[in-house]
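From the shared-data thread, chain only:
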Amino acid sequence: MAKKSNQKGNQSGSPLEVLIAFGKLGVSCFGGPIAHIGYFREEFVVQRRWLDEHAYADLVALCQFLPGPASSQVGFSIGLMRGGYLGGLAAWTAFTLPSAILLVLFAYGANVLQGPIGTGLLHGLRLVAVAIVAQAVWGMARTLAPDRERASIAVVAALIILFSSASVAQMGAIALGGVAGLWLCRAALPASTGEPHMSISVSRTVGLLCLAVFLLLLFGLPVLSTWSHSQGVALFDAFYRSGALVFGGGHVVLPLLREATVTPGWVSDDVFLAGYGAAQAVPGPLFTFAAYLGAVMKPLPHGVTGATISLIAIFLPGILVLMGALPFWENFRRHARAQAVMRGVNAAVVGLLGAALYNPVWTSSVKGPGDFGIALVGFVLLTAWQTPPLVVVAISALGGIVLALAAS
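Structure, as tokens:
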């Protein structure tokens, strides 16, 4: 049995142990961030007992509130707790690289797919995105916007994004959700009691330094990109901004990445959605979709270099802000106002994803009754039959091929 971490924050494991544990999860964790959190709990709370339920709940609550990929942030925190800073790096590497490598391989393979079969396969992958994003909207709405106050926040956020998909509109919708949550969502908030359960020792000095770097890059990269006229800097800036401004992780990054890559003409809508569909077929975090986009970019750098830049850039802000928040989280989370803001932000995230379901997912993929039928079958399989996403991806890809062959 693995040794338990002590309550003073000292590590009782090694980075190699963390690397092996997360390597197993990196090749087997299908189903998106919510499913990943379930996998992590089973592996590290129930089986390995690296941390207790209270500590795990604290980590999940923190990472759901912060911008960035929630499941990857939870994994990084567990690695940090178990093996120190190298343990956190080992957890991120082992959980992220398998899916990133698979998506880069798909990026190279997708370019050689020709004829009805290749076209149908790619179209089927775009259609599976409709089903999976619809499932995410449905599930998140039931959990994060179950009452009329939060449902109203979600609708307003969706309307903002439907009329403007620019990053400033997305930031405004999230900020408005937080303000509305502070006003509307303060009733019936659970009290936070008990002793601190976090056992990750990150000093306030390190936390403040990470927050400073996070803000410096967020506001400094656009200036550096304009001044240097470097496509590499522009690429890093685009993906860093996407990772820094997305709340909720997972599918919510879709409109931000589309704005960052499709709008300037770096990637076409068809290529974007084909990769997004392929991302559903691989394990690990959905943010590794960035590696695919970096690989298929039209301007240099692309290929493996572009994939590496994009992958690091999209994950970096979430890790920096997590490190910055850890020393202050325990006190912050006990305030009722903070909990109300969190509820409003989460409701706005539902609206953001709902708007993304319509544009670009629906408008770019569903062109006729056959397309709608494939998407509907996928949605029912996911929601009613609890079918694994990998199976739905395979069925949708086969359906796309059948439609293409029938049309030819």
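The CA atoms of residues 2 and 402 lie 50 Å apart.
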